[in-house]
Amino acid sequence: MKNIAIFASGSGSNFQAIVDAVKAGGLHVNIKMVVCDRPGAFVIERAKSNGMPHFIFSAKDYDSKEAFECAILKQLRSHDVEYIVLAGYMRLIGPTLLTEFPGRIINIHPSLLPSFPGKDAIGQALAAGVNVSGVTIHFVDEGMDTGPIIAQQIIDIDEHETKESLQGKIHQVEHQFYPAELQKLLGDYA
Ligand code: GRF
After folding, report:
1. Would you state the pLDDT for residue 183?
2. Quick one: which of 77, 73, 103, 83 has its CA closest to 1?
């Protein structure tokens, strides 16, 4: 089975969905560790309660992105990680990790890329007044949400949609969609 690390900065509901899919037998990968750049993030509690090795860091404790990515790389190597799965990791991946994992870093983004890249994709979609948005799973390159698209799912935006309601619909889709696409890409019986 392929060895993956999950990178997250926030609540980690997508991390949990991936763990649950592995436990339920629908996703055949080894989750070797969690990497988190926010010491207070709830994903850390989830990692702990799932008995998952984790590496937590603060960018401000390092001189540069290169320095903290070297520290991450050391951890990834020691756990034999082959693929990086980003699940709400709020940093641009730098050359250190991109060079080490060419075509082996995957991200999920809450819009139909190339529309609404970067932060607050949900707010951007609502502000633009579009009546559909969605979720994109893509390979990571050096740009902001610009890498080759793997799969997309469309979500309707209703007339009275709020940020919270759209966020809820997006999460609901993501929690099925990400594990299923990861299985197609990386799963042992794909
Ligand atoms: C998800 O909506 C994902 O698309 C985006 O960040 C959010 C993370 O949510 N990149 P969670 O931490 O997995 O709950």
Report:
1. 98
2. 83
